Task: inverse folding
């Protein structure tokens, strides 16, 4: 209220507010008004100090029961009760169905989006916090840097002995190791070997697992992993194998050979754990497990690093303390040639911050959280702007009602309350609808962001309170502008306003600015969506330097096929559909890890990406051979030769590759150079690569098949597989599909931005529809007169649309540089970036302009086609 | 009309009658001070007005507001028929008595 009076002299605020607080609503106008008036009169006549003093004195004199008692008699003074506000809100909502619909629809869609994203973000932030000791748990990771300072391996997993050595040197630190069977999805079955399952989420771990992590054991004793060949299952895994039988004490077969005994059952892993297990196997007898899972490196001491290692620090040790000790630690234990830099990662930072080699699960990038949050904020902004715009626009039409109320003696407070009640009620209604929308769309949203969102556990009382409060505040803010502008103390001016053409000039400018803002946001989102999708397409379709189509990959680790590779290959080639095949150690196009090779002219072995392949490698993958020849069975000694890529060639000294040897076990001759191809994903540049034949490393057989009906070919391949390995399922996959999966995170980010930008445009257009309806209604008589005077439909259409079209154009001009900048930042994160072309911006602009014009024309056409008789008749 | 009127109440009632249409807290207080030369607080005026309204001598409605009032509207009082009759009967009684008062010479 005080904002109205900007006199330098003011009554003491606190006393004024106190008065307002205790005064009964039907008396406040009289008492407060009189006291204020008296104050100003006295301040003029005598002194301000005296007036102030008297004001306070009189406020206290007014502080008596009779001033506080509300008036229950139905006197003429103020018949407005809360029920009345609701009734009027309901009536005015019904009276303007289109506005109410647009308002509620836009707001509830906006709220649903925002809440979904909010839940997603909260869930992402909650990762691994459910462990009681989550603040003291760390993962130890290592980083290898070569002499030139280039990081060539940054791994989430470390060597087997690290945990033991730490426990030995620092007894108060507890450790646990988690080992995912190497390049191998273990097959698990019951004792009768019926219905086996490939267990992707089987981990081998230490007995300290449950001391450190707080996964909930529902059945079974203490220390369930203490001892050799024991297993802990989750509830659903136990059900999968044993149905309703008691799983405790039952035996499972690991890889059909190693019996393991179930000792405990835990709840299923919470979705907000950075690794999720189905089966935990005790590490009490590693040798058996290595044998069973076909790990031929076994323990491998301080060289091989396949185990995730977690530390539980005692209270007196901090992360920095341990980090400080680690250089000394690595110096003490690691042989010099393989000595890494080690450091600790807080457990709770892993899910959003760690993207290392050998992560147990793909973690989410922090930027996706920021992207999601900013989308949420933008959409909520657009929806609230609709709400504000439509309420103010509509309130102009309600100006007559307001003026009438004032004339009838309605107080400003009542009017403000009326408008606030209406907008708060609308926003609460929208919240309810939004909850319904969330219930409907949660499953699709979950698959969109590829995470399980446990809504029930996330909705704590605090969060619910915050959401309710935010809804109230949103309603208040949206209702505040119309409430204040309309309840201004001069009924006459409001009446004049209502008779005028477009509402207050200030009000309409305000609305225009908001519309521009809305559309600018929508356009930025639209452009971003297109670029994100384009970038994904670019990554998927980029020429990789080899032919990824029509390659079937067959995993062979630990099968009899691996032991009979050459004869299996012979058998395959009898099939006319098979063009060529080669054993490989890694999925080409995904990643090839570093291995130590001795290059000519260098004293020490160099860690280089090293691929192990077989005859016909070049033929199978369609790699371009620049010089030399492919591995071939026609040369008896080719299993001891090397192929290198151009980058590797550059590492050799100037003498060229011919007659040079690379050291792997023994010196092996280089027989050819292939063109650089993307053997790792496109987040990385092409590095030097050496390829040799070493069947012991084989993980997959890559089969190039002829184009054509693929299912028949697969059946034929499976028949061949059965000849060699009747016990195990045949689970091939297509290389191109697997590689597309590599860019899944770009894809899901893209799809998310696409959906939400479409929603943003829809909400913005809903608002525009409301605004045009409003402005056409105001000008309906003007249009009638114009038509009578001979205006054509098209000229009227132009008249009505041009105003808003200009706004969309302005929005474009604002949005383009913003989008340009944001996308530039985002694309910085990629090694290979799609070209963002200028026409994209123009296209987004034209698209929004078209959509907006179409929306506007819906209403304008109707108005332009109306017979002027209809609109002018009543005058 | 069995109500009694105190002298302050009578005075205020008279002022409201005189100021027909413009009587509200502040204006009544000012008129009172002008007429009597005595000061009075606004809450006191409010109390008296409230009491008079309860007795049915005056009625009120919400009136306009001014910037000085910070948007708060006035409550304008006017004298009811009952109030007017009351004042008139008091005045008549007094007139009658006055007529009986011996005239002073000097």
Result:
């Amino acid at each position: 209220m005080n904002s109205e009076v900007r006199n330098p002299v003011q009554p003491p605020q606190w006393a004024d507010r106190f008065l307002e607080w205790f005064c009964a609503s039907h008396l406040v106008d009289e008492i407060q008004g009189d006291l204020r008036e008296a104050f100003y009169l006295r301040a003029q006549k005598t002194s301000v100090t005296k007036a102030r003093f008297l004001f306070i004195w009189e406020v206290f004199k007014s502080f008596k029961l009779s001033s506080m008692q509300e008036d229950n008699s139905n006197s003429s003074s103020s018949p407005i009760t809360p029920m009345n506000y609701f009734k009027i809100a309901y009536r005015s909502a019904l009276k303007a169905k289109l506005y109410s619909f647009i308002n509620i629809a836009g707001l509830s869609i906006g709220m649903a989006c925002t809440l979904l994203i909010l839940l997603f973000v909260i869930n992402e932030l909650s990762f691994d916090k459910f462990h009681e000791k989550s603040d003291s748990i760390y993962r130890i990771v290592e980083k290898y840097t070569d002499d030139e300072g280039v990081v060539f391996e940054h791994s989430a997993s470390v060597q087997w002995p690290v945990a033991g050595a730490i426990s030995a040197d620092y007894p108060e630190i507890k450790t646990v190791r988690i080992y995912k069977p190497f390049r191998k999805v273990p097959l698990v079955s019951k004792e009768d070997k019926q219905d086996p399952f490939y267990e992707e989420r089987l981990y081998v771990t230490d007995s300290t697992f449950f001391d450190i992590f707080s996964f909930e054991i529902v059945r079974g004793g203490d220390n369930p992993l203490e001892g050799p060949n024991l297993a802990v299952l989750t509830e659903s895994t136990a059900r999968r194998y044993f149905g309703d039988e008691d799983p405790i004490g039952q035996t499972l077969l690991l890889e059909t050979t190693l019996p393991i005994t179930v000792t405990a059952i835990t709840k299923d892993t919470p979705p907000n754990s950075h690794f999720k297990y189905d089966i935990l196997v005790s590490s009490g007898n590693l040798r058996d497990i290595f044998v069973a899972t076909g790990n031929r490196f076994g323990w491998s001491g301080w060289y091989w690093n396949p185990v995730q290692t977690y530390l539980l620090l005692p209270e007196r040790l901090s992360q920095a303390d341990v980090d400080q000790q680690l250089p000394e630690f690595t110096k003490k234990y690691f042989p010099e040639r393989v000595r890494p830099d080690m450091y600790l990662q807080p457990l709770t930072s892993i899910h959003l911050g760690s993207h290392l080699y050998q992560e147990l699960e793909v973690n989410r990038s922090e930027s996706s959280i920021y992207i999601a949050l900013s989308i949420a904020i933008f959409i909520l902004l657009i929806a609230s702007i609709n709400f504000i715009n439509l309420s103010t626009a509509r309130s102009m039409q309600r100006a007559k009602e307001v003026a009438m109320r004032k004339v009838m003696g309605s107080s400003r407070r009542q009017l403000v309350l009326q408008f606030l009640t209406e907008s708060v009620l609308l926003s609460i209604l929208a919240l309810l609808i939004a909850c319904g929308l969330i219930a409907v769309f949660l499953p699709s949203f979950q698959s969109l962001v590829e995470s399980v969102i446990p809504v029930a556990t996330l909705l704590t009382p605090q969060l619910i309170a915050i959401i309710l409060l935010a809804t109230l505040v949103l309603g208040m803010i949206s209702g505040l502008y119309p409430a204040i502008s309309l309840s201004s103390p001069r009924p006459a001016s409001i009446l004049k306003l209502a008779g005028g053409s477009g509402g207050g000039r200030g009000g309409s400018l305000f609305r225009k600015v908001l519309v521009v803002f809305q559309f600018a946001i929508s356009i930025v989102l639209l452009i971003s969506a297109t670029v994100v999708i384009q970038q994904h397409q670019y990554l998927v379709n980029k020429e990789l330097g080899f032919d990824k189509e029509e390659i079937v990959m067959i995993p062979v680790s630990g099968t009899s096929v691996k032991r009979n590779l050459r004869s299996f290959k012979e058998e395959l080639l009898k099939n006319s559909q098979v063009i060529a095949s080669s054993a490989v150690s890694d999925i080409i196009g995904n990643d090839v890890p570093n291995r130590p090779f001795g290059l000519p002219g260098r004293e020490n072995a160099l860690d280089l990406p090293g691929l192990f392949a077989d005859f016909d490698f070049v033929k199978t993958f369609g790699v371009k051979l620049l010089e030399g020849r492919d591995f071939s069975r026609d040369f008896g000694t080719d299993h001891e030769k090397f192929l290198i890529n151009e980058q590797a060639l550059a590492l050799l000294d100037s003498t060229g590759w011919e007659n040079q040897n690379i050291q792997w076990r023994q010196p092996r001759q280089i027989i050819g150079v292939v063109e650089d191809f993307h053997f790792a994903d496109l987040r990385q540049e092409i590095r030097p690569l050496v390829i040799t034949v070493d069947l012991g490393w084989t993980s997959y057989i890559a089969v190039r098949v002829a184009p054509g009906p693929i299912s028949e070919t697969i059946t034929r391949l499976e028949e061949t597989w059965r000849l060699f390995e009747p016990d195990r399922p045949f689970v091939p996959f297509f290389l191109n599909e697997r590689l597309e999966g590599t860019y899944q995170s770009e894809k899901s980010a893209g799809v998310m931005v696409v959906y939400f930008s479409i929603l943003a445009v829809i909400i913005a257009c809903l608002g525009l529809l409301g605004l045009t309806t409003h402005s056409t209604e105001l000008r309906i008589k003007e249009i009638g007169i114009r038509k009578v005077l001979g205006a054509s439909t098209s000229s009227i259409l132009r008249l009505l649309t041009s105003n808003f079209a200009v706004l969309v154009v302005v929005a474009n001009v604002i949005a383009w540089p913003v989008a340009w900048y944001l996308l530039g930042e985002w694309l910085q994160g990629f090694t290979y970036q799609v070209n963002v072309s200028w026409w994209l911006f123009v296209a987004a602009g034209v698209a929004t302009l078209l959509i907006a014009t179409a929306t506007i024309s819906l209403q304008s056409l109707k108005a332009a086609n109306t017979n002027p008789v209809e609109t002018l008749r009543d005058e | 009309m069995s109500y009694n009127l105190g002298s302050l109440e009578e005075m205020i009632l008279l002022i409201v009658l005189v100021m027909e249409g413009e009587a509200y807290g502040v204006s009544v207080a000012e008129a009172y001070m002008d007429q009597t030369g005595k000061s009075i607080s606004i809450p006191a005026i409010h109390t008296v007005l409230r009491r008079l309204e309860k007795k049915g001598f005056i009625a009120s409605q919400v009136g306009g507001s001014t910037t000085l009032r910070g948007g708060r509207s006035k409550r304008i009082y006017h004298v009811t028929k009952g109030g007017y009759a009351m004042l008139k009967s008091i005045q008549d009684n007094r007139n009658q008595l006055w007529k009986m008062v011996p005239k002073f010479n000097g």
